[in-house]
Amino acid sequence: MSAKIRLLQVIPEMNVGGAETGALHVAEYVSKEGGFSAILTSGGKLLDLLDRKKIKIIRWPINKNIFFILINIFVIFFILLFLRINIVHVRSRGPAWSCYFASLFTKAKLVSTFHGTYNFKSNLKKFYNSIMLRCDHVIAGSNFILNHIHENYNVKTKTSVVKRGVDQDYFSPKNVTEDEKSKLKNFLNIPNNKFIVLLPGRLTYWKGQKLFVEALNILRGQNKVNSIFGLIIGDSKGKDKYREELLSLINKYQLTGNIILAHGIKKMPVAYAISNLVVSSSIEPEAFGRVSVEAQSMEVPVLASNIGGSLETVINNKTGWLFDSENPESLSKNLDLISNQDSKILEAIGKQGRKNVLQNYTRELMCSRTLEIYHSLV
Length: 378
Hints:
Layout: E1 6-10, H1 18-32, E2 36-41, E3 55-59, H2 66-83, E4 87-90, H3 93-106, E5 109-114, H4 123-129, E6 137-140, H5 143-152, E7 158-161, H6 178-187, E8 195-200, H7 209-221, E9 228-233, H8 240-252, E10 259-262, H9 268-273, E11 277-280, H10 290-297, E12 302-305, H11 310-313, E13 320-323, H12 328-339, H13 343-360, H14 363-377
Parallel strand pairs: 1-2, 1-4, 2-3, 4-5, 5-6, 6-7, 8-9, 8-11, 9-10, 11-12, 12-13
């Protein structure tokens, strides 16, 4: 059945991220089901995980530069003809313009995934964003994004929600050994008998790392922070100034013994596994909230901002908790309450989280539903 699918996914880079991981999983799934799968990208670390005997990798500059957008119309046109592509799946706005015209000329079907809310402060920017809707089918990664699309754009094409999925075998407690946990704790110099609160995600203002530090400072003022150890893991990706601001804030509040910043953790499931709680403190809506789903898959309770995709992925008081976004007092209060919960309650919450992922957010569910959309078009 899948042999009819000849897929080209177009994405600027294949580094670690939600869109990139989704492209990786879909490419593998289509190939496994007997279809042809190719990825057009500038490069990225995730390419090393792909079997190039099964998935064709085409490396070419894919970016938002107007010159490359125009040139890539012709580049993609010839790729579609040469590889006999019948489905083009684009995951970024700049390349979407190139793919739109290339697919028109070749009659390949165009699918887009709307990965975020995108900035549209001007009509020009809104027009630029609208290319993601000039497709044969638009995929939204959550109901939140689907609602955003219909509330802000004139949608004339078919839209579907395909919930993003995680690799439930990779993000599994069974994928982590006690030795790995012990080594990571020693490497990070985490004191024993601490309630470890993990905040993963790239270091950027809207991810709410400063809000997290502010919340722990409130607990310090209440003499309730001694048992808590905050672990912020994320790459600054060139935003070194923000990282320095975080370190300065931690020093200012005398929290150097309660919070550390780390990056370059090779196996994130180990970081989840050593944690008692995972926090997603974003001050802007997450389109999906991969951190919350990965944590639940690892059977670790989640505390997330009550905005965006987290309202869907976290079942309040069952798989985790929600706090008032941008409110350090609400975050600190919840941290205090959760850190004093009985360990059996936290364990039960974690198991419910894993169950939630297996029912709704697996890699297989995401890929099979995406493949159904492809088949509906060809």
